[in-house]
């Protein structure tokens, strides 16, 4: 054991106590993340192993105790909670009519393909990128165009020259932006976003910004909603976000689509109604309102815990596996690891981790730029993370010496 078990970790703020060291057994519950029949450590799919905020759990209990689980609709209080959250935290001015609801961010991305493009038209995404950005484009009969991110000083950067060249060459109609970026964890700066906006306006390219990790922005970084920069181009810009990643309620499906142009809002709404994609279930509406009204304290505390876990990972790898290059995230609990020093192919690398009974996400699923990379989820009790790190050490120590 390279690291001892951590001390009991508690945070006390305003008399509310959250214990993120609590180990909650998720095996044999239908959990996607913890589906194993053995003692494999799950550090892959992007949900947290922490109990949800107590106000959210109280809300679910209250709704259940009411006893009538009928048809429902968003309330005025829900709209106001969304407006207040995004206005106070990010300066994004929203009105009720700017907010549409969706079953999830990925269904929303698929919807935007129908809003902004026709079959056969080109859509640009970066590489690496969250896998559904690529699969949904292909599955919906659009042409997928990739622009690789560049890496400098341990961070990803947009290659604006390549982006514009690809837009011109392929007559791109839509750019799918991931901000904060998954899997690299970058929070794009105002300068980067404004430069991208200039290019897209010049060539009449629509922009859909997936901002689901916005609330997981870490200290020292600032998240800027794309809509906040899009004045005069609102008819071509949509933002998509959700409470699910922020508050660890991914099993309760629900997302929001933000748009500010009246004609565009009407078009989105029409596309949703064609497929009955505009209504959420009772629990999604209630949890969303509760999270945005009362979840801020839990979020502040969990982010502090996540940052401590990120520090732990960086320290461990620097000391024990220095040939792994760590891309420290600006946002989220996902860390992008470059394992190329170990000189194996992608499947061999993944299998080596699995043989050591620790599962990370194989980087190659996020595009060619993910070759020999792995995505590590640190949103778990520290004792689990430490055991996972020790198994990673075992996995790579068993391989041939680094190149």
From TrEMBL:
Residues 66-372 form the Aminotransferase class I/classII large domain. Keywords: Lyase, Pyridoxal phosphate. The keyword Transmembrane helix does not apply. GO terms for molecular function: cysteine-S-conjugate beta-lyase activity. Its cofactor is pyridoxal 5'-phosphate. Its EC number is 4.4.1.13. InterPro entries: Aminotransferase_I/II_large, C-S_lyase_PatB-like, Class-II_PLP-Dep_Aminotrans, PyrdxlP-dep_Trfase, PyrdxlP-dep_Trfase_major, PyrdxlP-dep_Trfase_small. Pfam families: Aminotran_1_2 (PF00155). Belongs to the class-II pyridoxal-phosphate-dependent aminotransferase family. MalY/PatB cystathionine beta-lyase subfamily. This is cysteine-S-conjugate beta-lyase. It comes from Psychrobacter glacincola.
């Amino acid at each position: 054991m390279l690291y001892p078990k951590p001390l009991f970790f508690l945070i006390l703020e305003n008399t509310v106590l959250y214990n993120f060291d609590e180990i909650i057994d998720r095996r044999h519950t239908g959990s996607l993340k913890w589906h194993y029949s053995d003692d494999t450590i799950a550090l892959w799919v992007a949900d947290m192993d922490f109990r949800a905020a107590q106000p959210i759990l109280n809300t679910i209990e209250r709704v259940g105790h009411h006893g009538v689980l009928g048809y429902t609709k968003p309330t005025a209080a829900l709209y106001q909670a969304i407006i207040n959250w995004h206005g106070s935290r990010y300066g994004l001015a929203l009105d009720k009519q700017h907010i549409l609801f969706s079953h999830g961010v990925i269904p929303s991305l698929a919807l935007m393909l129908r809003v902004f493009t026709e079959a056969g038209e080109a859509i640009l995404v970066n590489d690496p990128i969250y896998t559904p950005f690529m699969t949904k484009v292909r599955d919906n009969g659009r042409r997928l165009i990739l622009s690789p991110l560049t890496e400098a000083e341990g961070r990803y950067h947009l290659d604006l020259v390549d982006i514009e060249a690809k837009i011109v060459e392929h007559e791109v109609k839509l750019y799918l932006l991931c901000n904060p970026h998954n899997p690299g964890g970058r929070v794009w700066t105002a300068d980067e976003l404004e430069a991208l906006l200039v290019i897209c306006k010049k060539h009449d390219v629509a922009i859909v910004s997936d901002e689901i990790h916005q609330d997981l922005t870490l200290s020292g970084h600032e998240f800027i909603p794309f809509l906040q920069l899009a004045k005069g181009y609102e008819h071509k810009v949509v933002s998509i976000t959700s409470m699910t990643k922020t508050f660890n309620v991914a099993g309760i499906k629900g997302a929001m689509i933000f748009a500010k142009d009246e004609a565009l809002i009407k078009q989105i709404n029409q596309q949703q109604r064609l497929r009955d994609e505009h209504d959420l279930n009772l629990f999604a509406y209630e949890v969303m309102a509760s999270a945005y009204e009362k979840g801020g304290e839990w979020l502040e505390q969990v982010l502090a815990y996540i940052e401590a876990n990120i520090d732990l990972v960086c320290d461990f790898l620097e000391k024990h596996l220095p040939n792994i290059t760590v891309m420290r995230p600006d946002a989220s609990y996902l860390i992008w690891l470059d394992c190329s020093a170990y000189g194996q192919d992608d499947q061999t690398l993944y299998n080596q981790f699995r043989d050591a009974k620790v599962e990370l996400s194989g980087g190659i699923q996020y595009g060619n730029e993910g070759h020999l990379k792995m995505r590590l989820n640190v949103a778990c009790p520290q004792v689990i993370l430490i055991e996972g790190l020790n198994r990673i050490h075992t996995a790579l120590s068993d391989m041939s010496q680094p190149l």
